[in-house]
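Just scan this pair:

***
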Amino acid sequence: MVFESKNIEFKQQMVDDIYKEVIAFANTDGGVIYVGIDDEGKVTGLDDVDDTYTRITNGIRDTILPDVTMFIKYVLQDNQVIRIEVGEGSYKPYYLKSKGIRPAGVFVRQGTSSVQASPEQIRQMIKYTDGDIFEAMRSMEQELSFVSATEAFTRYDAAFDEDKYFALGLRNIHDDLYTNLAWILSDQCRHTTKIAVFADEANTAFKDNREFGGSIFRQLDDTYSYLMLCNRTVSTFKGLERIEKQDYPEEAIREALLNALVHRDYSFSGSIIINVNDSCMEFISIGGLLPGLSAEDIRSGISQPRNRNLAEIFHRLKLIESYGTGIRKIFHLYRECGAQPKIEVTPNTFKLILPNRNMEAVVDESVHTQKEHFSITPQMKAVLDYLAEYGEIGEEELQELLNVKRTRAYLVARQLCEADLIVALGRGANKKYRLK
């Protein structure tokens, strides 16, 4: 006598519940459904076999997505029982069309029962089927709108309509479902960007904080606007000339923000973190570097985008020029500054630190207090003032600045190096000095 098991299910009559069983078998290891046999394994037969057969085949075809019919075989037994052989599907998860790709519509086999799949089981099935590229996987959220994305494409004079969704990577070709890339661009995106403004360099005393959500296009606009409010302009005078300089180059903020949004790992649920204090602005995004890359590679302009389709969209909108140029541009903007941007990488985070250019203006004040037993001569102060303004100085420039010969210039520079106030880079004619 045959009993119900992990791979066998009995149905006395045709009921809508049968679609759940088909989905469960297709999502697990396959199985057989007998229609016309009761729960005890007794053959009860069907009153109208032809009508039941038609309802079953049409229902499975129209009710379940993706198309599972290629994995199903129907056998009529003694003109009383319909045997439905369900093979394990190759494009999981299969789900009820009316419920969508979420627990209410996805089922798996558990013992002798078909139960709702957990969100994690659904994600694992999607990952197994679609591959390990998050942006290309089918999104578990399918009720999406694109108000902010449409505005962004319109602003940058690019077409954005449903005919473009497949080419852009917003829909997959198997069952026309939205991908995770579509979800990231949609108004329903759950990832956020958090900004914290601190009163101290240790980032312990809060002054203000913001959190921006929605489409990453909206996050880009809102975050950039707020960061520009944090970007003070300091005025100084050189003789009669008034010189104004922002704490951070606007383009450096833009490139750092774009880098965080385009290259973060969206398979993790955390937020992009931006910390601001008087000395620097830190951009911390989830996801370390891809295997094979180092921080020095990134600084040199080598890039391997984690989210290739997302990067291509931003490139199409001319928000980024090409892979790898953003970081190089940031360092170029700081080329004449004593303090340089920094890149810090852990296995799961990428941090880009922009120094406050105007903090260099108070270097001469700190110089007098950091060394009690070290006397700053007028020549030394002239060198420190020059480096604070121009970033670096060469051997010949040093001699001209101090109006001395090479030996005396060397002695002044060596004393400053020994006092840990400046650092020498390079050798011979190419030697340069910068603030420590």
Remarks:
- The longest strand covers residues 206-212.
- The chain has three domains: 8-117, 193-304+316-359, 371-435.
